[in-house]
Amino acid sequence: MTDTELQPQQDEHLVTPLELFFDLALVFAFTQVTRTLVEDPTWGGVLRGMLVLAALWWAWAGYSWLSSTIDVDEGGVRLSMLASMAAMLAAALAVPGAFEDDALVFALAYLLVRVLHLVLYAIAGREDRDLLGAVLKIVPTELLGAALLVPAAFVDGDARIAIWVVALTIDYFGPMVVGVGSGWRIAPHHFAERHGLIVLIALGESIVAIGVGAGLELTPKVMGAAALGVVVVSALWWLYFDVAQIFARRQLVQASGAEQARLALDAYSYLHLPLVAGIVLFAFGLETTLHHVGDRLDTVPAVALCGGAALYLIGHVCFLVRTTGRVFRRRTIGAIVLLALIPVALVIPAAAALALVSVVCTGVVAYEAIRHRVDRLVVRHPELAE
């Protein structure tokens, strides 16, 4: 690969087909996590599923920074990205057995994904000493965090979980400890768009959950529950893409240097994880609901159904506080109400619990759309304010 292929980009650029192709591996990973939760609907299963999701998310987040810094769709870089995608796909295939027989496969594939990420960044930094210095600071924590999953594959039970927790703690806190300075380069529009697309991909997993949960017997109850599921997913989509994404992107574009890098790390790399985790948990609860529309939900699926949507809203509140400095009160209230619905969801039919979740989520959307309709139009169409 030539130096020109790996020089940091200074201008905005569109999300490339290769980036979207790379993200397909994460689509499959989301599906694998949801399937794992459905097959092991226990607190232990949720813990293991969320640990795997956190690991995969952080690996993807690293590549979102990389592809916002250099052109990944040319020459040898393209081949390296395809190799990274293959490694990510191998890790996704091993998700159901990441804490069992396929632990070593997952660990080695995950380590390869992280190593290729650092190699590409290091080569890119040859022409940019500030970028190279920034990359070198995170090498120890990134490699140590990923490498710890390899010895974790050779122990069992709580010891394996403990090593995973330590590994992810090192990985996630590494950038906070070493600091994120002006050496990092991103194209803000591209960076925000890439994260918006990954939220869209995660929401697609909820649509998949509707199809899988409905199965082949499309009774009126199942069809009604499926319709409610679409209502909730649509509300979750609206909450992100109507104005929240626009608010955050504008703040990211207006920032610069170290301030922009810190905002990107906090608001996108860190605070998009609860959004994605909330969607995956809701998808798990939704699929279980469609399997048992007339029955009461067990504790874990009920918590996932209500708590997943609540986590998504909490993630929104934190994301918007970090980017705008404002607390969106209706989303906060909506999250509190959803958490309060968990005891109710345990004693009523699953379809009724889903209906209550849909009422809360659409209520938040309706209030914001109606109460702030003028402000919303100005945000979405700035030319109206002129």
Describe this structure in words.
With 386 residues, the chain is an all-alpha fold. The protein folds into two domains: 1-185; 186-386. The chain is built from 16 helices and no strands. The chain has helices at 17-39, 43-69, 75-93, 103-124, 129-147, 149-152, 157-178, 188-214, 220-254, 257-270, 272-291, 299-324, 329-340, 342-345, 350-371, 373-380. The radius of gyration is 21 Å and the shape is globular. The chain starts with 16 loop residues before the first helix and ends in a 6-residue tail after the last helix. Residues 1-7 have low confidence and may be disordered.
Model regions low in confidence, pLDDT < 50 over at least 5 residues? 1-7
Overall number of structural domains: 2
Largest sheet composition: none
Helix content: over 70%
Q: What's the overall geometry? A: globular
What number is the mean pLDDT?
88
Distance between the termini: 48 Å
Q: Radius of gyration from the CA trace?
A: 21 Å
* Helix and strand pattern: HHHHHHHHHHHHHHHH
Q: Please work out how many helical segments DSSP would assign.
A: 16
Q: How many individual β-strands?
A: 0
Structural class, by secondary structure, is mainly alpha
Strand content: under 5%
